[in-house]
Amino acid sequence: MTYHSKIVEAGKAIAPFSQTWDGIEPESVARMRLQNRFHTGLDIARYTAKIMRADMAAYDADPANYTQSLGCWHGFIGQQKMISIKKHFGTTKGRYLYLSGWMVAALRSEFGPLPDQSMHEKTSVPALIEELYTFLKQADARELGMLFRDLDAAKAAGDAVNTHRLLHKIDEFETHVVPIIADIDAGFGNAEATYLLAKKFIEAGACCIQIENQVSDEKQCGHQDGKVTVPHEDFLAKIRAVRYAFMELGVDDGVIVARTDSLGAGLTKQIAFVKEPGDIGDQYNSFLDCEEVDAANLGHGDVLISRDGKLMRPRRLPSNLYQFRAGTGEDRCVLDCITSLQNGADLLWIETEKPHIGQIGGMVDRIREVIPNAKLVYNNSPSFNWTLNFRQQVFDAWQAEGRDTSAYDRAKLMSVDYDGTELGVEADERIRTFQRDAAAQAGIFHHLITLPTYHTAALSTDNLAKRYFGEEGMLGYVKQVQREEIRQGIACVKHQNMAGSDIGDDHKEYFAGEAALKAGGAHNTMNQFAA
């Protein structure tokens, strides 16, 4: 619907009340409606689900159409990310937000900083989804508000060309609202608890929910030790719970990401129930580390299972957890992925211990033998030492090719001494093209970094503190922050505008006309940053 048709529509709504709604202007109503396109979280979820589905189809047609996101722990961070993307690339297409349970635990819990173990308040996750979308909607309102002001100025100046250009920009305006992939951890309880929490996610605006196959009350960060998985039927029940939540709320094309931590998880809390040989429970149990026992030599309290006519004793730890056989992680991952996709999941997440395209692609190839269009969301994790990993990959590749590697110490490849070397340059090039190459060779549809803005906040704050409290004093802020904001065109250099001051002034004028007391007058110091 065009700007003009919005004004006409508003005028029709006002017309029956022309004698009582004095001062309600159709154009002002049209502007406010355009600035607030999404009225509920469900509106957002339905809109963004369609975007994700279209992007998934585009990737299936050509893996060059992969998508990306960065993890954001505050609405402002998500807003500034999307404003930056629109500024530099002209479109938000293919760029999402990621909501990391790790960052919610570390930064948003009322308990204070917590490890990634599902100890934070589960309601804090849907609260952050709502916050992110509040800030993205405000970014829409801000940008459109500036266009409206420019339009008024062009009309007042009688500039027909610029007026036409601005009307076109308003009609073609692209929202900052994009899909969020939201981390529900292991569901924070049983399947019913997962369903109830998933509804909160969706009502807040999430079109995509990521859930993992760890035990809810034993959940660990995917890059830490001590991970414990659940039998497939338990995990599939939670996937179905999320699907029912989407469908109950009318988001039928909502997206579920099934995450498996089996590659690094050597433990399970329970032995799967088996109905018949070879079923999914029997396959899960087949990975248990067992020893054959004689019925005459049983220990008091031993837990036993039968397998192919033999009596087997699973290896049980003092924690009452059962151990898987070493070397079975990849097979368990592949089985997890296939069963998840066969039971309602749309995308996969395989948590790995290193970013290695060959390793990831090998598993995806096995999955695609059963599910041809299987595709991944992949964590380009800050928990990986990317520099060391890729330098070692180049080193190993060179050795396999018979190249001379005597100038390099594999154990010390992180050293700055190797930064400008041929090996260091080749490793950096592999890092640069990792997302593109992994999308083409390893079935990765979506690349994300879980907690980059956690690290950028720490790094930038450290640099500012070092300079401001040191010899540079105020120059430490002015030179490294404000001057760069101005020169790089960072929107929030005009922080009053970013916080909504100009939007508020527009509203005051709608409400009170010439009597409006506005903040953006001649004495507003933000005018020092005028272009």
Folded structure, characterized:
The protein is α/β, with parallel strands linked by helices and 531 residues long. Among the domains are: 1-36, no CATH class; 41-139 and 177-272 and 327-384, TIM Barrel. It has helices at 3-14, 26-35, 41-61, 75-89, 101-107, 124-156, 160-171, 191-204, 232-248, 280-285, 329-341, 357-368, 386-401, 422-432, 434-441, 452-468, 474-488, 495-498, 501-512, and strands at 67-71, 95-99, 180-183, 208-212, 228-229, 255-260, 267-268, 290-292, 305-307, 310-314, 322-323, 347-350, 376-379, 444-449. The protein has an eight-stranded parallel beta sheet. A three-stranded mixed beta sheet has the order 5-7-11, with no helix packed on it. Helix 4 links the parallel strand 1 and strand 2 (95-99). The mean pLDDT is 92.
Q: Main beta sheet, described?
A: 8 strands, parallel
How much helical structure, as a percent, in the residues?
40-55%
Q: Class by helix and strand content?
A: alpha/beta
Indicate the overall shape: globular
Average of the residue pLDDT scores: 92
Brief sketch in words of this structure:
The protein has helices at residues 3-14, 26-35, 41-61, 75-89, 101-107, 124-156, 160-171, 191-204, 232-248, 280-285, 329-341, 357-368, 386-401, 422-432, 434-441, 452-468, 474-488, 495-498, 501-512; strands at 67-71, 95-99, 180-183, 208-212, 228-229, 255-260, 267-268, 290-292, 305-307, 310-314, 322-323, 347-350, 376-379, 444-449. It has 531 residues and is of the alpha/beta class.
